[in-house]
Amino acid sequence: MNVEMQRTAEEFKKEKIVANRRRDRLRPRAVREADHATPYAELIAFDPGGTTGWCMMLVQPEALSPLHPGIGVLDNVVKWHRGQVDCGSVRGNLGTSSHPGISTSGEAAGLSELLGLCRAWPYAAVVVEDFILDPKRFNTGRDLLSPVRITNGISYDLWLQERTYFVQGASLAKTTATDEKLKAWGYYTSTGGLNHARDADRHALTFLKRAANPTKRGRDLREAAWPHLYGPKGEYYEAGRRKQP
Fold first, then answer.
1. How far apart are the first and last CA of the chain?
2. Rounded to an integer, what distance in angstroms lies between the CA atom of residue 205 and that of residue 212?
3. Which of 42, 126, 130, 214 has the fewest CB neighbours in a 10 Å radius?
4. C-beta separation of 214 from 66 below 8 A
5. Contact 182/198 with Cβ under 8 angstroms?
């Protein structure tokens, strides 16, 4: 009996710790440091090309769920990392490769870094800027299709992991997360001239805004992006809201 009581007391203590942790993280403006004991909605966004911008964000899962109204996304991003990867724009064998106009070694090296990022976060949703040929900006350089080649490499490696990715239009991201809005939200930095990283930031924040939408479209996007959190077996599954539009 004493052993059973001791076990129950230990379980109660653990449950209290978990409950306190959840209570603390649900404060709308109290963003705390991420820890490995808490599942987050992880997101990686890419602006692919000769210089590829990337952004990674970890978000409190309640911030994306209508089951927890009032928990804003912008105030509950617990981790934000960003940067740029040279995918052949400078480094590599540009000018000497067997494929004229393309740094095959530089592009492959850059791609390997991007794939390493994705593989380091196996539960992260991955969003990539969609490539649409603009006749007004058309050029005959081999770098024109660099975004396509980079995206194809990401797509194939995610397929090997039985993962998928989401595409998002450049115009949608640029109108949703303008420079003015990024500054107002606290996600704008001009340090180092990381313009491609800033575009990746736009895609990440735009995707989060879409995923936080309380409509069926937003719910479907959440479930597809983070099934372990918002799917039928996830803690934040909206079982009682399935018939809502």
1. 52
2. 10
3. 214
4. yes
5. yes
What six digits make up the tokens of 207?
């995707």
Write down the domain spans for the chain: 1-28, 31-236
User: What is the number of other CB atoms lying within 10 angstroms of the CB of residue 115?
Assistant: 17
Separation CA 156–CA 57 (nearest Å): 23
Q: Which residue has the tokens 């959840």?
A: 22
Residues 6+ apart with CB under 8 A from 5: none
Q: Which token pair is 210?
A: 């879409």
CB 72 within 8 A of CB 28: yes
CA distance 235 to 230: 7
Give residue 87's pLDDT.
84
Read off the pLDDT of residues 28-42 as tens digits, 9 standing for 90 and up.
433 334 444 568 999
Alpha helices in 26-76 (DSSP H): none
State pTM to two decimals: 0.79
- CATH for 31-236, among 3.40.50.300, 3.20.180.20, 3.40.50.150, 3.30.420.10? 3.30.420.10
Instruction: Extract the runs of DSSP E, i.e. beta strands, from 20-143.
Output: 41-47, 51-59, 77-86, 125-129
The list of the chain residues with pLDDT below 50 reads 1-5, 22-36, 243-245
> 218 to each of 115, 125, 151, 190, 211, how far by Cα in Å?
27, 14, 24, 31, 5
Q: Are 24 and 17 within 8 A, CB to CB?
A: no
